[in-house]
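Researcher: Good morning. I'm working through a list of sequences from a screen, and I'd like to move beyond sequence-only analysis. For each chain I'm collecting a predicted structure so we can compare shapes side by side. This is the next one on the list. No need for commentary yet; just the structure.
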Amino acid sequence: MLSWVVAGSGLLIGLVSLVWVRRVSARLEALKQSYWELRYDYTRLRSQVARLDPEAAPSDPEPVVSPSTATVSFVPLSTIRKKDR
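Model: Good morning. Structure tokens for this chain:
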């Protein structure tokens, strides 16, 4: 009898965990989607502001690197966006 109780509680805990993981996964996907939409909007608005006032200096100027001095190119994996399925 005790083995049935242990097996049943293990099954119940497993099912609750599965439901919880799926819910957290859906929240994470929604959060990632919101992040990329916000990043897209920020870039779009920054370019609109730059067009409105082209003489103003950009708030975060990117460093200028000449191709002759750059020997290694590095792209962080966090900047590469995976395609939505």
